[in-house]
Amino acid sequence: MSSEANRAPNEPESQPGVSQDRREFLKQCVAAAPLLLAILPVAEVAAASTPDSSYKPEEHYYGMGIDVNKCIGCGRCADACKTENNVPREPFYFRTWVERYVLTTEGETVVTSPDGGIEGFPPSISEKGILRTFFVPKLCNHCANPPCVQVCPVGATFITRDGVVLVDKDYCIGCRYCIQACPYGARFLHPITHTAEKCTFCYHRVVQGKVPACVEVCPTGARIFGDVKARSSPLARFTRFNEIQVLKPQLNTEPKVYYANLDGEVR
Amino acid sequence: MPPDLVQQLTNVLHQVSGYIYPNEVELQWGLLVVVYPYITGLVAGAFILASLERVFSVKEVEPTYRLALLTALAFLLVAPLPLLLHLGHPERSFEIFLTPNVHSAMAMFGFVYAWYLAVVLQVEIWFDYRKDLVLWARNERGLRKWIHLILTLGATDISEQAVEFDRKAVRFITIIGIPSAFLLHGYVGFIFGSVKANPWWSSVLIPVVFLFSAMVSGIALVLMLYLLTGLVRRSLEMTCLDKLASFLFYALVVDFSLEILDFIHRLYEAEESIKILGTMISTRLFLSLVVLQALAGTVVPLICLAFVSPAFGKRALVRFPEELRRLLYLGSALLIQIGIFSTRWNVVIGGQLFSKSLRGLTVYKMELLGLEGFFVSVLLLAAPFFLLYILVKILPPWKEVPTTAVPEEAAGD
């Protein structure tokens, strides 16, 4: 594919010299591609087998902050999550998704999440009837008191020392009890592996000192990831300067996804 | 991605009303999980009926004692199958026994089941049949002789003392057995009742409702089996049938009262979930809950049994001729089975038809073919009857032993 084809339609015509350089660069890339193929598997094995040895799980306790006012409903988080974690693309499987709430002047609340918000949201009703509207990103709440972990008959789902709820897919028997027990609809049965699946806070990234994919791509910084307890973490700052709510607090699951500016209509 | 699944879920997506979480489009527990508590309930119910005769010495239902025990065994052997077939990884199911999570209600079920099957039911049947097994082995030839001889496990002493010990053992096991049967099915109710995320399930009454509905279904099943086998064998004791029908009536009254209590309690408390549950009952569950479970499966048999059976004294309110009475009992029992199956359906499927966001309803599309399909479930429901047939052939519950009468002998042919 030429560089012309890759250019966005409204991108201005670039300078000939720059274009030349780019063409040159791409050619070099193509020439070097076989080399890359040779390096990649080695790099992958290295990355998988040697986790960052300086990482100490007991020194962390993770959570996520979500500023509802900042979410624009672009759905990039849900999209990035599917790419990063190989989540089936069909619109029935989500580790994270975005809901749109439209509160009408009639007192009605209309919630939608077409394809988890990945393609954005179509305009729904005339603006006249709208009282308020907002977007709410959802994901596993990585509860401190998780009902899913309680009910798993074989202990395949567990809490890590750094406070992340994970599923061991080589151990899960696929009974789906955890899916029933989750009050937030955050789990699903993977159609290929036939085991329970959910958000891992991108654990593979987190142990390398990176943030989850959804946090990385959010264009407005609506998602904040970090240590709940560390005083200097972005999350600690977020919880200090915002009034925080969690989802379904009455169920005593003690979620570690903290929402700022959350409306009472959100369940 | 399996294309069938995508097609099926796409169809479901089009029938969703309101808002459901995107992961809720796929309904997790289908028909197989409906069959499981239904079968387990029949086991517990049949056993409790058998125990009634032993512990409370209800002489009239004596002819059903052994039949009820064998029925319980036949159904218990099939009970774990629907669960096993439903697992994503059945080959890992043994992990429940090897590395159980002691906080999980489901993990403990394995042990409750094993206790009930291995310790209670099989041991009780063995002690009850031991004398007969020895006598059969002595008088028979060929394969039957060997089967019965092996089943004695070498304990061939039928002296007065030994038989007396058997009798005591049976009584002792029955006394352990009643709480065990309560545990077995109350426990199945607890698996659902303890899910706090689900307002349709989360109720302390669910285990109790499960227990009494189990007794209802178990008694109804034994009544049907006794009636049909009795007709075929031309030895049917009407007093026994009347007593069974009375028991069925009492159990049904308690069961219905509990369900009404649950219903009124929910309605009166009118919690956050009441609106969506109300919509679900009046639309998606109308046929299975209002029509099949409540009207056809409970109210009609309740009225019928109230008038036909001698539930309020020695005589029935309306005296019907025997043949008509048999027909009405059979009809009531059949309706009750349909009603209890609907009860299981309404709990298991109903609990998944509404979104945990409490904003929408989904649908359940039952498949015909496939592991989770209609035919597999029919097969699973038929299997216990086949097993029962074999069990009855090996351990005839009514056959007269050609020597001295045994106390628990059924009045035979």
Structural class by helix and strand composition of chain A: alpha+beta
Overall pLDDT of chain B, averaged? Answer: 92
Number of helices of chain B: 15
Low-confidence stretches of chain B: 401-413
As a percent range, the share of helical residues of chain B equals 55-70%
Sheet with the most strands, sense and barrel status of chain A:
4 strands, mixed
- Tell me the strand order in the biggest sheet of chain B: 1-2
Itemize the secondary structure elements and their pairings.
The complex is a heterodimer of chains A (267) and B (413).
Chain A: H1 3-6, H2 16-49, E1 62-67, H3 76-85, E2 96-104, E3 109-112, E4 130-139, H4 147-151, E5 157-159, E6 165-167, H5 177-181, E7 188-189, E8 196-197, H6 203-206, H7 213-217, E9 223-227, H8 234-241, E10 244-245, E11 257-260
Parallel strand pairs in A: 1-11
Antiparallel strand pairs in A: 1-9, 2-3, 2-4, 5-6, 7-8, 10-11
Chain B: H1 3-15, E1 17-19, H2 31-56, H3 65-78, H4 80-86, H5 95-98, H6 105-139, H7 142-151, H8 160-193, H9 205-233, H10 238-269, H11 274-282, H12 286-308, H13 322-348, H14 350-353, E2 359-361, H15 374-394
Antiparallel strand pairs in B: 1-2
